[in-house]
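User: Could you write out the 3D structure of this protein bound to zinc ion? I've included everything you need below.
Assistant: Certainly. Input first, then the structure.
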Amino acid sequence: MQRLYRARILNPTRTQCVTEYRDGALVVDADGRILAVGSYARVRPRFRAAKIVHYAGRLLMPGLVDTHIHLPQLDQRGKHGATLLDWLERYIFSAESRFADLSVAEDISRRFFKKLILNGTTTSMVFTTIHTQSTALAFGLAMASGLRVIMGKVMMDQHSPKSLQEATHRSLNDSAWLCSEWDGMAGGRIRYAFTPRFAPTCSETLMRETGKLVEASGAYLQTHIAETVAENSAVKTLFPRLHDYVHLFERTQCLGPRHLFAHAIHLSPSEYRRLARADAAIAHCPLSNLFLKSGRMPIERVEQSGVKWGLGTDVGAGPSMSMFAVMRHADYIQPDRSVEPMVALHRATRGGAEALGLDRETGSFAKGKWADFIVIDIAGIDPVYRLAELSKAEVLSLLMYRGDGQAIESTYVAGNKLDVDGF
Ligand SMILES: [Zn+2]
């Protein structure tokens, strides 16, 4: 049955432009695809048979897109570390080691996907741990949650804690098996990402063979790059023949579209240009970068290069699951320029979908895309707010600077209202 959702609608149509319908309509077909978006007065006559779902006094916008998040780190949020390495060694490696136990993995995975729903994040790109069975279990829960999820088992075959280091062939075989089992499931809602953690914990052989698997499968690749100055120095020492950091990915053929690089803070203009030329993308995680004092992604260089980029919570180094929190920190981290609410919203929705190569599927409202959207009650931020009294600029600003999960009333993926108690 066709459904027509009537609400105030925001739709990020271009980088600097959010289209608004004060009395809007979003029409969705029985499969969960969008048939039309526009003002209620114009759309309603074309879809007389559609069942109307009234969201009076509510705001409806595309679901949020988190391009970088770690499932096993859910409960490690907000635990202080002086540096990335200090934090990894104090909390993260031991937390990830516990995923050898399937009951731990099940509990955390289930709560993780519930939290995504509660925060209005409809699409996410997720790291699990090195554990194959725990990752399979997480995929099962991702399927059951109804969310759009790109996910992969972490790969690390050197310079890692003993409990998290794998044999190279096992890492490759298990990743290939998970990809064959899960990539493309649920009509493409579930995708696989080969996930070499970051260069220092991955041998060149692992990288090279992973590049071949990505190529052969058409799946994704996700990793970290140039998060800290110390990491860049370690890479220089470990791979002395490299011209620079991006060269490692060029040399191992781990660079192309559907390749997501988290952080990308300490790179040269040439490296950003080469990422752009390869049609790779960056996950910008400002809240995490502030938390670990990793540095600031040079937004002007990134934009000059033309490389695609989205936003990521980077939970657990990012203490918040909310993409609204990430949006405001994308502004706070820039010392001398402002990231406007409209631009931040674009990055948290459509821009993120572009970075993931999913902009024909999700990220904004257009005919043929999946109906991935959230219903927002602005009074959830503060009961003093009345949606009808707020301008578009005020709404965008309040969401960005004060928004969190409290504002999210419902989360829909492919026209299905997701139920946190349903899995
Ligand atoms: Zn990360």
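The first strand starts at residue 3 and ends at 14.
User: Perfect, thank you.
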